[in-house]
Write a structure and sequence with these properties.
22% helix, alpha/beta, 5 helices, 6-stranded parallel β-sheet, LiaF-like_C, 29% strand, disordered N terminus
């Protein structure tokens, strides 16, 4: 049979102090709540969008997957919401590769605020030689907004145009050598964007988002108009 063994190390430790465990759990919970999620900036969203664009060009994402993820990018409010969108892409694990597609903004320069174009029972136009920032908002109510980017200086790698057309219209023209994408919706109206991907992976892109209700949003490339130098605006 078995011989004598010292079993003292297996002695019953005594009753568990449940109140102490509860206090510790409350303390951990408060600590977690005290650390709010980091809010995402426009630069964070643009960086993730560029990674997704590269994944689409490499065939890692389908067009539908890319559209869904880009839509989620510009709905995200925190950095934690952005990270899962590129977690399964190899470029996401290489910060240096991601930085290579950062917007060509001078170091230390703040992002430009969004430009607003509003047409209420009238019209609003932005065209000619102008500096296009990263975000534009277009609102048309019984009126029309025209945005012409064919001669604009692109200050960002990606421009996001948020549109709202209510019994009105928004018309957008872009150069033919950029990428044009859309995540907008038409409700008793039309959201017609001739989406396409540029053959040049370094080309800038324009993303059209928003909604057309009893109105219309249209965007297409203008043949013969090309972006010559993305960094010309610097």
């Amino acid at each position: 049979m078995y011989g004598y063994r010292d079993l003292s190390r297996f002695a019953y430790p005594g009753p568990v102090d449940e109140s102490a465990l509860e206090k510790r759990q409350v303390s951990l919970t408060k600590t977690a709540e005290a650390e709010p999620a980091l809010r995402a900036s426009d630069a964070d969203r643009d960086r993730i969008a560029d990674i997704l664009r590269e994944a689409l060009a490499e065939g890692r994402l389908t067009a539908d997957e890319h559209a869904d993820r880009v839509d989620a990018v510009y709905r995200a409010r925190t950095v934690a919401e952005l990270e899962p969108l590129v977690r399964d892409l190899p470029v996401a694990a290489r910060p240096d590769a991601a930085d290579a597609y950062a917007p060509p903004r001078p170091p230390g320069a703040a992002a430009r605020p969004a430009e607003n174009l509003v047409a209420v029972f009238g019209g609003a136009t932005r065209k000619g030689r102008w500096r296009a920032g990263g975000r534009l908002n277009a609102f048309a109510l019984f009126g029309g907004v025209e945005i012409d980017l064919t001669e604009a200086l692109f200050e960002e790698r990606q421009i996001v145009i948020s549109t709202w057309a209510l019994f009105g219209g928004v018309d957008i023209k872009v150069p033919e050598n950029i990428s044009l994408r859309s995540t907008g919706t038409g409700v008793f109206g039309g959201f017609d964007v001739d989406s396409y991907e540029s053959a040049d992976p370094e080309a800038p892109s324009v993303l059209i988002t928003g909604c057309a209700v009893f109105g219309g949003v249209a965007a297409k490339a203008k043949r013969g108009k090309r972006v010559k130098d993305l960094r010309a605006a610097r």
